[in-house]
Amino acid sequence: MNDPLSETPGISRRRLLGTAGAAGAAGIAAGAAGGVASTALARDDAPALTTVGSTSVPFHGKHQAGIVTPPQSRGHLVAFDLAPGQGRKAAAALLRRWTRTAERLTTGEAVADDTGVALDAGPSSLTVTFGFGHSFFGRTGLADRRPASLDPLPDFSSDALDPRRSHGDLWVQLGADDALVAFHALRALQRDAAGTARVRWQMNGFNRSAGATARPMTTRNLMGQIDGTRNPRPEEPDFQERVFVPEGGGPKDPAWMAHGSYAVVRRIRMLLDDWEKLGLREQERVIGRRKDTGAPLTGGSETTELDLEKTGPDGGLVIPAAAHARISAPEANGGAAMLRRPFSFHDGFDERGVPDAGLLFVCWQADPLRGFVPVQRKLDRGDALSPFIRHESSGLFAVPGGCGPDGYVGEELLEG
C-alpha cells in the first residue's frame, strides 16, 4: 500500500483538520462527488487542530511515556512472542523499527505504508511503552542480564489465570484519547513485527473521555467506584524511588534498567451481577469509602487520610477490618506503594448474559517484591472485595528507561 500522504510532501496527520465541522458541509459533499475533500484538508493554510486531538506527549525522555502520563480514554495492551529462530539481533532490529514508528505516531506523523486509519486526526496524547518479559532473556541469549526483580510473581490463591493470556516475551502499552489513533498505532506495531514476533495476547481498554466531567476527577471503574485515590504523586519526595529504578541500577537491577520501572499487568474480571445485588451501604463497607465522593467512611473528602482506628457507636471499626481500602493502604503494608494506571474493559456478554468486564490492572513500581507482591498477598488473605472479582491473566515486565532521538528503547540491553 502506498503512503496516503506521499503526494503531499511535508503534510502530516497533525496538520490536517480534525473535525468534519471544520471541513464544512461543502467539503464533505465534494469529497463524496469527486474525492477532492482530502486535497482541501491538506492545504498549507488549513487551521491547526483545536480539540483534544492536538495534544501530544513527548516520546523521548529519561523515562518512557505512558507511566506518569495522565490516563487516556482508550488503551491497548499487547504481548508478543519472538518467532522461532528469532534471537537478539532480530529483537534489536524490531525495537529499532518500533521506536521509529512510535516517534512518528506520537507527533501525529504518518508512517511508511500507512493504513490511513488515523489520517485526519492529531496525536491525541498517544503514548507507546515497551517492556520485556522473563522469557525474552532466555530466547535472546541474555539470561545473564535478566533483572532479579523480574523473577515470576508468586501464586495467589484467588488466581484463575489463563496461560494463553499471560506473560510474553515483549509487551506494549498503547494509550490515546482517540480510539482510531490508538488502533492505528496498534496495527502499525503489529505490522512492524511481522516475521519477527507474533501476538501472544491483546486486550482493549477504556477510561472516561477527557472533558466528560465538569472538572478533572479521578476516574471510576465499572463497579462505579472512584479508582486511584491513593496513588503516589510525582510531587511527593519519595515518588521517584517508589516508581523508577535509580541511576546505575541497583542491587537487583542491571545498569540498563536505570530510569525504568516494572509493570504488573492483571486482567481482573468484575462479577458485576453479584456486585450490583449489594445495596449502596454494603458496597461502601466492602470498599471502605463512599461511592459518591470517594471519601473514607471515617469522613472528609476523597484525599482525606483513612482513620483506621476510628470506631462507631457500636464499638466496631468504621472502616471494616476486611475493607479493600484498609487492606491495600500503604500504612497497612509497611509503606508498600505502586502507581496504578488501569483501563476498564468490556468484552461482551456470555450465553447467560453475564458481562465479561472489569479492569485491565497495570501498576508501576521500582521493585515488584516491595510494591505489588506484599499488597496482593494481603488482599489474597482477606479482602472483602475478593468474592466479586477474578484474576484471569497476569504478566510482569521490565520496562527500561526512555531513549534519545538517536537511540531506541532497549538499546543498552540489546547492544550493551
Automatic annotation (TrEMBL):
Cite the cofactor comment.
Binds 1 heme b (iron(II)-protoporphyrin IX) group non-covalently per subunit.
**All copies of domain Dyp-type peroxidase C-terminal, residue ranges:** 218-403
Give the species: Streptomyces zingiberis
List each copy of the Dyp-type peroxidase N-terminal domain by range.
64-207
**Alphabetized InterPro entries for the sequence:** Dimeric_a/b-barrel (IPR011008), Dyp_perox_C (IPR048328), Dyp_perox_N (IPR048327), Dyp_peroxidase (IPR006314), EfeB/EfeN (IPR006313), TAT_signal (IPR006311)
Q: What does this protein do?
A: Involved in the recovery of exogenous heme iron. Extracts iron from heme while preserving the protoporphyrin ring intact.
What name does this protein carry? Deferrochelatase
- UniProt keywords, alphabetically: Heme, Iron, Lyase, Metal-binding, Oxidoreductase, Peroxidase, Signal
Principal cellular location given in the protein's record: other
Family of this protein: Belongs to the DyP-type peroxidase family.
Instruction: Provide the reaction this enzyme catalyses.
Output: heme b + 2 H(+) = protoporphyrin IX + Fe(2+)
Q: Does the keyword Iron apply?
A: yes
Give the region (Disordered) as residue ranges. 291-311
| Alphabetized SUPFAM superfamilies for the sequence | Dimeric alpha+beta barrel
Entry cofactors: heme b
